[in-house]
Amino acid sequence: MLTNDELAKWDRENFMHPSTNLGQFARGEGSQRIITGGDGVHITDRDGNRLLDGFAGLYCVNVGYGRTEIADAIARQAHELAYYHAYAGHGSEASITLAKMVMDRAPDHMARVYFGLGGSDANETNVKLIWYYNNIRGLPRKKKIISRWRGYHGSGLMTGSLTGLELFHKKFDLPLAQVIHTEAPYYFRRKDAELSEEDFSAHCAAELEKLIQREGADTIAAFIGEPVLGTGGIVPPPKGYWDAIQQVLTRHDILLVADEVVTGFGRLGSMFGSAHYGLKPDLITIAKGLTSAYAPLSGSIVGQRMWDVLMQGTDEYGVLGHGWTYSAHPIGAAAGIANLNLIDSLGLVENAGTVGAYLQKQMKNAIGDHANVGEVRGEGMLCAAELVKDRDSRSFFDPSEGIGGKVVAAMLRRGVIARAMPQGDIVGLAPPLCLTTAEADTIVGVTAESLREVCG
Ligand code: PMP
């Protein structure tokens, strides 16, 4: 067996890590952690640390680590049929069963699910289907996609464009011309301090409508958004936001894509964020919680009105020219079935609602009055504390101080993983949905101590 030092050296010398400062890592600076195991809400590393994973990996290990039911299902599938493609009507018992389970859980007006590998490729699929749809309808100019600043929709060329975070655009020649961004529904950071939540939602809808009118509704195909902004800061929508936005979209014949990569399969305490907030999307993006990340699998759930046109298109033009080798991979599908069964049998959607609410309440009690906490917010098993320099004026720390990162690092030293969300000093939490109240107490205690260590 390799020693820790050997493994660390191989890592620094060979592995180009995602979302990592490449030079620092190669020079042996910056963080490096080699994970060896997981059990429930905890992971262990090669240095012998046992850490409470308050971010469920990348908000994806929803059922927690070490679930033998899923591991066994994967092993059984690998022995029986590790792979066959899904082109030209091929399938496996696992992929067909999972499709049925997804559609049984999806909102009523959804018609079919197309399987991919990860959230990014599922959103690429969505954009292609949207363009195909408008071409079939004889609207070849209606192609632009509106996304929100601070939205996160992936790292590909199109999906990195949809993502509304500067880091994902800068030096990559993104966003692509077909993508435009509108205001983030970020009530805490609204410019006018006097605006009520409802008025702020109306303002976001009015901004959207202005953008549509400026560009021409005949050029706008779709609007994409996460029911709760995730990577952009864990920001639940202000009151009335989705109603107001949907009214604008309907007026201008614009499709709605609900990116439920984070919110799908229970994280908000509802099976889907769309049901939670009364959205009627034309497409729903799913990934992460579909398999709890035990194997890579994603999906695009297609609504009836798009499905009808897609069928018309292939009747006229033949086979849909869109497929991945690994679409509906049987091992991913087997993991998905076992995962969804566990979510049901353990009541994890309900647990996300109740323990998530407890986590948020206790967090507010513990740090809500701290001079440097502007807001504690969340929904279901998503919780964030936004740090500010001054509460009254809602002024922010200089980003170069990295206060959010320092609090998260202090939490890690105490054995709890949180995430410093990009663009702001925001401590993000998205634990596995099986979190207990005792584990929630640990997270809250560690957050409070770490905050005091960094901010006093
Ligand atoms: N959409 C959302 C809302 C996400 O949070 C993510 C990943 N964090 C993605 C899409 C992209 O998924 P992936 O990283 O699996 O490509």
TrEMBL record:
| Family label | Belongs to the class-III pyridoxal-phosphate-dependent aminotransferase family.
Give the stretches traversing the membrane: none
Which SUPFAM superfamilies has this protein been placed in?
A: PLP-dependent transferases (SSF53383)
Q: Does the keyword Transferase apply?
A: yes
Query: Which cofactors does this gene product need?
Result: pyridoxal 5'-phosphate
The protein's matches in InterPro entries, at most eight in alphabetical order, are given as:
Aminotrans_3 (IPR005814), Aminotrans_3_PPA_site (IPR049704), PyrdxlP-dep_Trfase (IPR015424), PyrdxlP-dep_Trfase_major (IPR015421), PyrdxlP-dep_Trfase_small (IPR015422)
Which UniProt keyword terms apply here?
Answer: Aminotransferase, Pyridoxal phosphate, Transferase
Q: Does the keyword Transferase apply?
A: yes
> One Pfam family for this entry, by name?
Aminotran_3
What is the name listed in the Swiss-Prot or TrEMBL entry for this protein?
Aspartate aminotransferase family protein
Query: NCBIfam families of this UniProt entry?
Result: PRK06105.1 (NF004767), PRK07482.1 (NF005684)
> Which GO molecular function annotation, any one, does this entry have?
pyridoxal phosphate binding
